[in-house]
Structure prediction request, 212 residues.
Amino acid sequence: TPMSIQAIIFDIGGVLVRTMDRAPRQALAEQLGMTDRALEELVFGGESGRRAQLGQITEAEQWAYACQQVGWPVEQAAEFRARFFAGDCLDTELLRYIRGWRRAYKTGLISNGMNGTRAMIEGPWAMGELFDAIVLSGEVGIMKPDPRIYLLALQQLQVQPEQAVFIDDFPHNIAGAEAIGMHAIHYRDNPQLFEALERLNIARLNVDTLER
Prediction:
């Protein structure tokens, strides 16, 4: 018989925090004479983005770099960042479910996040207390889909790969988790996630009965 699942591990960007409204990012990109995809690639992609997510340069250095590349005044980097993320929202519904699942399962986060990510988790997003393990690429110097980042989270949660399910919006990160024997769900939306979890016998809870 398959080992039962004991841990549910989430990605942050694209799952718990999503760009619900693309208009602000599109407007910023348009002002800079580029597409929103090219702007995202500038911020997260390329050698500099990779180094930021591996913690080799700070988040502040990465935003300064992005400003320099597009001719935005570096001293206004905070405004640039705020406009880039203006359409992003925390999925409070999903966090309510996680609060409920925590009664029966261990919970974790694995994020390719720059060095400011933990401050967001503990501060504005206020979700730090919902997770038993928080593994951030900018702190550990390893990015998904490198198998070592998943193994770090499993080690912290004290579960075997086949006892954990990992949820992410990028297929290559899903493949990375599956490669070491984890269950994995390619996130598209909440109804699809709940169905996939139910197939793993992880019940959708009645969140109305949970304390807020």
User: Anything to note?
Assistant: The chain has a mean pLDDT of 95. The longest strand covers residues 106-111.
